[in-house]
TrEMBL record:
The keyword Hydrolase applies. PANTHER family: METALLO-BETA-LACTAMASE DOMAIN-CONTAINING (PTHR42951). Pfam families: Lactamase_B. SUPFAM superfamilies: Metallo-hydrolase/oxidoreductase. Gene3D superfamilies: Ribonuclease Z/Hydroxyacylglutathione hydrolase-like (3.60.15.10). Keywords: Hydrolase. This is MBL fold metallo-hydrolase. Residues 10-209 form the Metallo-beta-lactamase domain. GO terms for molecular function: hydrolase activity. It comes from Litorilituus lipolyticus. InterPro entries: Metallo-B-lactamas, NDM-1-like, RibonucZ/Hydroxyglut_hydro.
Amino acid sequence: MKLYVLSGYIQEILLVEYPDKLLLLDGCSRADVTTVLNFISNTLSRSPSDLKLITVTHMHPDHAGAANKLRKLTGCNIACAKKDTQWYRGFSGKLMHITDILLTRYVANKMQKRQRWLWYSSTLKADIQLTDGDLLPGFDDWQVLTTPGHTDRDISLYHLPSKRVYIADLIVATKKGFIPPFPIFYPNNYQKSLKKIASLAPSSVILAHGGEVTITNEQINSIQKKAPTEPMTHWRLIQSKLKQICFSR
């Protein structure tokens, strides 16, 4: 198994190579389709059809945005957490979907990335639904861990032989250190998810925003203290900003 960490539009892309197949650990952003295909064809000298599975850890634009397009181009399967409903459901879900795409564009601008096409479907029809403890079909050296908090359907992927774990957005690396992500819809579940990762005692942790790092239990404890005790969502953030403006006046 070879793990390649590629520089994506606003996040790291995790591509896993085996002699006879490829695995993409997350669905990237819509802007990353060409990056993934070019790396497979030009760097690995392999056929795009060697990509057999994409896992989507959650539905945000930089984790699900390229999944449908890559499935169409390569014939791969898509796997995600087993849920009865779509994340972006109803009218409020559609608004949140648009907001998340705009937030992705904002982050890209902060990173001085040129504007790219980011629109993707707000719904995902997965070929495979995953539950806690499952082994990835066709890639049974990877175990699925449910790690909700950021959303209701976040999953992490634990490589059993090497004890490395990809945790997507559970933790974010910044210049000032490790912090919780935004948003956090389920703060209690978020705390449990951090404890689940700490209990693994992984050899390394792979972040969607920060790459492969080593995190100590003390650092995880610090992240837990920084995490909100109430949901920190788009609407609550807007309410907070409006209150600040009103009080300042």
